[in-house]
Amino acid sequence: MKKKSLGQLGQFLLLFLCFLFSSQSVFSQIDYPEKKAVGVHINGDGFKKIQQNLIPLIMNYGINISHHFEKNFVYTLDPMSIDQLAPTEELGDIFVSIRDNLEKYFEGLVLKDHHFRATLSNMSISAIWKNINFKKDLDYNLKGNEIIKGSFVFRTNNITLQVEDAKIEDLGNPLLKSVGFNNFIVELDASTDLYVSIPVTFNRVNGDEITVKVGQPYTNLHKIQILANYEPPIKFPYIALKIEEDEYPLKREIIEQDINEHKESILTELNAKLNENFKKLAPEFLQKYITDMFSGHIRDQGQVQPPGSPADLFETPIEWGISLADIDSKKKNLELYFNGLVKDFTMTKPFPLLSYPFRGNGKIDHVNVDLENHDLTFIFDIGFINQFIYTGYHRGHLSRYLVDEKNNEYIYFEESPKIYVDENGKLKIACRAHSITRGLDRMGAKPKVHFNFELFVNFRMKADGKVSFYIESVDLDALTWDDSDLKKPFKWKGRKTLKNKFKDFQKMITDLHAKGDPPELSDEIPVPPELFGIDFDIKSVSIDPNGYILIYTNFKNL
């Protein structure tokens, strides 16, 4: 038997894994019929490693949390009265008195409540984070539909806000024009760390929809001194007192000097405003961002060549998609489950889902599998894999199987082969096929003999660290045939011939095992080398009796 022919049957197995997490596009709002098709189990140690390495993981995933740039940023404060504007109550009384006298002695001059708008051009925010962590609440704190509760905690003493051009105008009093700064810089006093804790709750609604609610954040920003500087001079509007032909301009340099002399109290007030607005705006901003991200599930999609397709043959690829269906948090562990979708656009009829009874039952046997000893475990429902097999059969790539290279004998599949786990927890491939009767064998059989057979299959770790999928043996007890295809009075000969063919098939497999070269259906399970920016090594593979293939991995560099 040629390994190439065996490989044509086995190429379907997990080929889509190469693409599983490589695409960020999404299917349109359609149903994902394969429920809990793919799972990811992260044990306590793995979850802890992720928590302790959020900064590099977030950066590896392409999200820059250390730098943000805005070409134009406009921010409007709530309206405030003139006494609220003053940094102290004493100055507030003075400001009110000045305003009242100005309105009294200058006709048409009315100063309303202030409504400040800041326009920041070429704004750059940079941060060097000491640590970012996710602290998970104890499970007994969960209520109702809550799945996970916890807080993202950020810690730093190095945040810098730099604005090339800052303009502040009073929308309530346009006559005051605007005040501007060049190269305005705001920094934190590095002697004290800034802490920001943002609570989040993951909820399950409508059966399989995941939502996230952001709570009120805590920060010690009010306890940290803010340092500010700018490139003089401050840009003031031109203000002058004019008495007939004589004009007395406002001494802007004196005002700037006074501002610098009162910088500490101004920054104290600015600090309080920043803290107040952070607590108000951060939940709104984060809630919108996270809601958009989770809206209609987290999804991923990709393409793969049909199983068994020759490498040099270009054809319409198979489309697949996964959609986050459930999050389960057990003590320190985390499990993510995705519904699946397989689409073959060359098919005119939908997938025959009902003809695939060999599915998982939605429950992983945590007792009999080695989940807790590995950082991350991939969990694949066999029914989902059978959908990929069917596309190869539909395209004609899994139509026949070479069983006797010397005599060029094939068996011809009459339906798509199916993987399943039998009642003893063994992984098998069930096949419905027929053979072509030749020569003297026609004395005991019709030109075609229809039969069912099954192969025991398994996985093994290879010396190079890869995992292969191979045939263990033929289940001779599972061989059945259509007796009406055998001829009287030589039915006994037809039965004997058929059994002998499968015995020869078994002997060939046994000989290959004895040589240390078991017949491989796939010489490598192409699991992606990383997930969410995390590199990992495959350690082992097992079969769950409930109908799942589990691939155990450990993180490499965490």
Secondary-structure blueprint of this entry?
Elements: H1 3-10, E1 34-42, H2 44-52, H3 54-60, E2 67-76, H4 82-85, H5 89-105, E3 116-136, E4 146-170, E5 178-188, E6 194-205, E7 209-214, E8 218-219, E9 226-235, E10 240-243, E11 246-249, H6 252-261, H7 263-294, E12 299-304, E13 318-330, E14 333-343, E15 376-381, H8 382-394, E16 400-404, E17 409-413, E18 418-421, E19 427-436, E20 448-461, E21 467-474, E22 480-481, H9 491-514, E23 520-522, E24 530-531, E25 534-544, E26 548-555
Summarize this entry quickly.
With 558 residues, the protein is an alpha+beta fold.
Find the structural class using helix and strand composition.
Answer: alpha+beta
Write down the Rg: 35 Å
* Quantity of strands, as a count: 26
Shape: elongated
Can you give the mean pLDDT? 78
Ranges where pLDDT stays below 50 over 5 or more residues in a row are 1-29, 353-358
Strand order of the largest sheet: 12-13-14-1-15-26-25-24
How is the biggest beta sheet arranged? Answer: 8 strands, antiparallel
State the helical fraction.
10-25%
**Helical run tally:** 9
Beta-strand percentage? 35-45%
Distance between termini?
44 Å
